[in-house]
Amino acid sequence: MRLDKYLAEVGLGTRSEVKRLLKKKQITVDGKCIVDGKKQIEPTEVEVCYAGKPLRYQTYYYYMFNKPQGVLSATVDKAQKTIIELLTPSDQRPDLFPVGRLDKDTTGLMLVTNDGALAHELLAPKKHVAKTYRAKLAGIATEETIATFKAPLTLKNGEVTKPAQLKILSYDHDQAESLVEITITEGKYHQVKRMFAAVGLHVLELKRLKMGTLSLDEKLKAGQYRALTPQELASLKQK
User: Fold this and answer.
1) 7-49, pLDDT tens digit by residue?
2) Quick one: pLDDT band at residue 230, thresholds 50, 70, 90?
C-alpha cells in the first residue's frame, strides 16, 4: 500500500493534507523519516509514526451509539445534524455509515461502521435479525395486544407484519399510558409506530435497546458512543 493512502486511511486527512505532513517531515516508517507518499509499505508489518506517535492501521471500524432525539441516522444532511457528526474529529472517516435507520425522534442503539458485509447481514430481510425497542404508549396495552402482535398484524395501509413479541413492563392508569418492550424481525418504514397505531395505541417515546446480539450500553448517555468490544463484534458476526 502507498504510504499516503495508508496515512489517509488511518484518519490523518485527505491526500493533499497528508502530503503536507510528509513534506514537514512528521512521518516516520520504522524510525526513518519519509517524505515520499508513493513509498510502498506493508501496513501490518511496519511501524508508522506521526510526530513520534505510532499509528494503528485498521480496516474496519465499529461504533455503538446511544442516538439522541433530533439527530438523523444518515451520513450527510444540509439542514439537520446527523449521527456521523457526533463522531470526534479523530474518529471521522468518509466511509463510515449508520447501519439501518432510526426515526429522528427515536433514541437508543445505533451501529456505525464501514463494514458493508456486516451491515448487509444485519439488515437483509432474509436474515430476520431481531431488534428490541422500549416504547412509552398513550393507551393501555393488554394481554389481547400481546396476542395480536404474536400473529401477523395487518397495518392500516394493508401491509402485513411478521409476528412480534410484546412484553408489558408497567401501566399508568391515571395517565392512560403503558411502558412496553417489543421485538420485531423486520424493518418496515416506521414499523413499530404503525403496529401500535393499528391497535389504537400511540407511541410517545421509542428507544432501541438491542439489535441482534448487540445490546445498548446503558452507561452511554444520549449522544455518546464507544467502539465495540472484541466480544461484542465476534458475537455480532456469528452466523
Assistant:
1) 988 878 888 889 999 999 999 999 999 999 999 999 888 999 9
2) very high
Looking up cell 393499528 gives: 198
Q: HEC states along the chain?
A: CEHHHHHHHCCCCCHHHHHHHHHCCCEEECCEECCCCCCECCCCCCCEEECCEECCCCCCCEEEEEECCCCECCCCCCCCCEHHHHCCHHHCCCCCEECCCCCCCCEEEEEEECCHHHHHHHHCHHHCCCEEEEEEEECCCCHHHHHHHHCCCECCCCCECCCCEEEEEEEECCCCEEEEEEEECCCCCCHHHHHHHHCCCEEEEEEEEEECCEECCCCCCCCCEEECCHHHHHHHHCC
The model's pLDDT over 84-102, given as tens digits with 9 standing for 90+, comes to 999 998 888 888 999 999 9
pLDDT of residue 238: 83
Residue 82 has pLDDT above 70, yes or no: yes
The pTM score is 0.83
103 is catalytic: yes
Q: Grid coordinates representing 80? A: 439537520
* From 36, 77, 103, 217, active-site residue: 103
Grid cell digits, residue 137: 404508549
For the CA atoms of 141, 190, 111, 167, the dihedral, rounded to the nearest 10 degrees, stands at: 10
